[in-house]
Amino acid sequence: MPTSNRIDREALYEQAWSIPMIELGKEFGVFRPTIKWACKQLQIPLPLRYIQDGQ
Hints:
The chain has one domain (9-52). It is 60% helix and 0% strand. The protein has four helices and no strands.
């Protein structure tokens, strides 16, 4: 049976701003672009370090 990784906006916002995106992706078993997409969908601004890296 497939499992679902669900997270609410507040929790994703807090994690996106506290740990690197690559680590967050590993935690959820997804790639960084998926985290970026989820942040965009939930209107979560990306951390400056993520934008500066050009990712």
